[in-house]
DNA sequence: CTAGGGTTAG
């Protein structure tokens, strides 16, 4: 925004006393002091001031309308609309454009509509009506409407106006492009996005930072970060938001390394990070499950004075939970002044995944008492807690509470969670009939929670019935084939198990290789099951054998239930030795000082034998061991596990 | 008077 000293002087010279009302209103609005601006405007009107000339209304209406949209004041906006029509100010395109903007910015819920049941449609109508009635349309008018429709999710209408603008002889500019690009980002339409990219290049908009960041974001949303990088690298200069778009693009596409690289380049070129830089980076770190990286970023957040931002705190809570340190997460949570729904949800989910799950339910009760409204994800977290704690009655209670008290309709995921609760608790038939009676068509993943429960509770008959349902929906479901085969193996039905494995091979299905990893001194060590080529393999197996002698003296019996192959018992226990989580865990114990907590991550679920062994090891080696599998966290301490052997 | 980037689940 450029200061206009000469114009100001000119206005002041002609006004009754300087500076004029209109000038003051505009100045306050420009500075973002919307309340002050609107107060001034109203005072001017109320005084019916002799001091205020007739020209003061058209001169300050655009600013006043801007305040209404910024502050969300629909009723005042509507009366200004009437004033614009009465006073003839509507003929002024600045006023008309500001009115357009008002109807575009107001959320549907705030739109004053006599019959509130169609507030959204009402606001679209208001936009169209103002637009059609405008005496003259300029590029700003077109851009405002395109943006407004796009923002309200009316993509087709927005693109319609975009085309209409062409035929009306108004050329799109950088504003238009940065309103249209997010549409193609949302629906992942790279082809259309590239057409816009081409247009921007041909018409000299390619160096515009707004167009640039929209392009970067569009390509990233279409999983084409390679194009995002090209756009980014070709820009002549980059502001903080551009760096952020590129960083978020990498982070959302799962490349933490690239995101961190951008972060370093950003710092290196002297651009100060914004709060959003961290709320993009930290979740990526959490998904990468790197506690070391996460802690470094946390340190940066503290030194940079970014703690206190709710987005950042929530993402830190989630990151620490996902990286296996729920107590730091809780520390951050307890220090937040007013955690919002997301913060509570992240913390509840953290406790649900780490156990004791009761803690999650206690938090939920506190959240309700504190009048923070849970949402559908909060209930997923609560149901997860019930599932992990085996609380069937509580599960039903929360499942019903969701719609009864908060008007949230249970989604497919909520149904899946409840089915999981019933199944894990051994109420297999009830789970079966619950899934069968769902109003939403159950997916293979809902059924597979029950299949897993059938395996745990050794109900082969029901397992076959459930597996049939799954294979109808998803014939190549790898996990379900494995579980069914294991269910057969468990009950000694080797022929069926073998048959199933043969048919899997015929279909070309390969089991995802199990792997576990551990971070030590800024380095991640990955272990694949039975990978003898690992330089530490022999030493790890040697140590494992020493431990296992002690374990056997304390009553350890190998549990070969989860061994997929049909082998002799001794061979089976040999197979167990090579499991990746054991390799990673022993590697951790051998390479860290006594007393250090060992944190292991695994891509699949932990097997029964590894769980037992880890309990023994936590006692024998006197270590706290945190193990994250595909489903939850296990905290092993003094021979016990936080999951209570129920997982 | 108009435009760009973010947090919670699986």
**Mass-distribution shape:** elongated
Number of strands: 6
In round numbers, the mean pLDDT is 90
Report low-confidence residues grouped into runs of 5 or more. Answer: 1-17, 113-117
Major β-sheet, in short?
Answer: 6 strands, mixed
Give the helix tally: 33
Name the strands of the widest sheet in spatial order. Answer: 2-1-3-4-5-6
User: Helicity level, as a percent range?
Assistant: 55-70%
Our measurement of the CA-to-CA distance between the termini, rounded to an integer number of angstroms, reads 59 Å
| Strand residue content | under 5%
The radius of gyration computed from the alpha-carbon positions, rounded to a whole number of angstroms, is: 31 Å
Structural class: mainly alpha
Pfam family, one: PPR_2
GO molecular function, one term: RNA binding
Keywords: Repeat, Transit peptide
GO biological process, one term: RNA modification
Structure, explained:
The protein has 647 residues and is mostly helical. Among the domains are: 1-136; 412-506, Serine Threonine Protein Phosphatase 5, Tetratricopeptide repeat (Alpha Horseshoe), CATH 1.25.40; 515-641, no CATH class. It is built from 33 helices and 6 strands. A 6-stranded mixed β-sheet has the order 2-1-3-4-5-6, with helices on one face. A hairpin with a 2-residue loop joins strand 5 and strand 6 (640-641). It is elongated and about 100 Å long. The two termini are 59 Å apart. The relative contact order is 0.03. It binds one DNA strand of 10 nucleotides through helix 4, helix 6, helix 8, helix 10 and helix 12.
């Amino acid at each position: 925004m450029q200061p206009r000293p000469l114009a100001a002087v000119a206005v002041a010279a002609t006004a009754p006393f300087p500076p004029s009302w209109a000038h003051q209103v505009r100045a306050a609005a420009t500075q973002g002091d919307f309340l002050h601006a609107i107060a001034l405007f109203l005072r001017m009107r109320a005084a019916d001031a002799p001091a205020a000339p007739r020209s003061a209304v058209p001169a300050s209406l655009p600013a006043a309308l801007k305040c209404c949209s910024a502050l969300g004041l629909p009723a005042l906006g509507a009366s200004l609309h009437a004033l614009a029509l009465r006073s003839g100010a509507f003929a002024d395109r600045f006023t008309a454009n500001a009115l357009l903007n008002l109807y575009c910015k107001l959320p549907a819920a705030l739109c004053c509509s006599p019959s509130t049941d169609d507030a959204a449609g009402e606001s679209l109508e208001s936009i169209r009506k103002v637009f059609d009635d405008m005496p003259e349309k300029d590029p700003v008018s077109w851009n405002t409407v395109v943006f407004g429709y796009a923002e309200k999710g009316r993509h087709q209408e927005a693109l319609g106006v975009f085309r209409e603008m062409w035929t009306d002889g108004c050329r799109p500019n950088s504003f238009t492009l940065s309103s249209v690009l997010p549409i193609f980002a949302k629906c992942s339409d790279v082809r259309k996005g590239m057409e816009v990219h081409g247009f921007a290049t041909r018409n000299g908009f390619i160096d515009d930072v707004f167009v640039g960041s929209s392009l970067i974001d569009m390509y990233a949303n279409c999983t084409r970060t390679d194009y995002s990088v090209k756009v980014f690298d070709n820009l002549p200069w980059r502001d903080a938001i551009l760096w952020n778009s590129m960083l978020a693009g990498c982070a959302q596409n799962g490349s933490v390394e690239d995101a961190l690289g951008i972060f370093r380049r950003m710092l290196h070129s002297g651009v100060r990070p914004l709060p959003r830089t961290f709320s993009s980076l930290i979740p990526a770190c959490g998904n990468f499950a790197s506690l070391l990286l996460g802690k470094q970023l946390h340190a940066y957040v503290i030194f940079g004075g970014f703690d206190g931002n709710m987005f950042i705190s929530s993402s830190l809570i989630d990151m620490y939970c996902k990286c296996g340190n729920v107590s730091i997460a809780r520390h951050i949570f307890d220090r937040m002044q007013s955690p919002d729904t997301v913060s509570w949800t992240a913390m509840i989910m953290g406790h649900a995944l780490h156990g004791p799950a009761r803690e999650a339910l206690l938090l939920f009760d506190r959240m309700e008492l504190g009048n923070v409204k849970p949402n559908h994800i909060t209930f997923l977290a609560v149901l997860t807690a019930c599932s992990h704690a085996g609380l069937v009655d509580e599960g039903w209670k929360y499942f019903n509470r969701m719609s009864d008290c908060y008007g949230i309709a249970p989604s497919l995921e909520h149904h899946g969670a409840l089915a999981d609760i019933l199944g894990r608790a051994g109420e297999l038939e009830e789970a079966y009939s619950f899934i069968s009676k769902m109003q939403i068509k159950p997916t293979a993943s809902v059924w597979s929670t029950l299949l897993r429960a059938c395996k745990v509770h050794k109900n082969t008959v029901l397992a076959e019935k459930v597996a049939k349902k799954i294979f109808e929906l998803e014939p190549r479901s790898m996990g379900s084939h494995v579980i069914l085969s294991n269910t057969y193996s468990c009950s000694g039905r080797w022929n069926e198990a073998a048959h199933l494995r043969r048919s899997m091979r015929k279909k070309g299905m390969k089991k995802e290789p199990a792997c576990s990893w551990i971070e030590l001194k800024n380095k991640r060590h990955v272990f694949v099951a039975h990978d003898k080529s690992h330089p530490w393999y022999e030493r790890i197996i040697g140590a494992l054998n020493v431990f296992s002698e002690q374990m056997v003296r304390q009553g350890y019996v190998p549990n070969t239930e989860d061994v997929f192959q049909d082998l002799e018992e001794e061979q089976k226990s040999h197979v167990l030795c090579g499991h990746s989580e054991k390799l990673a865990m022993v590697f951790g114990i051998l390479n860290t000082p006594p007393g250090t907590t060992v944190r292991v991550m695994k891509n699949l679920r932990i097997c029964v034998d590894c769980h037992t062994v880890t309990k023994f090891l936590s006692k024998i080696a006197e270590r706290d061991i945190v193990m994250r599998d595909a489903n939850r966290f296990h905290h092993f301490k003094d021979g016990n596990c936080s999951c209570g052997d129920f997982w």
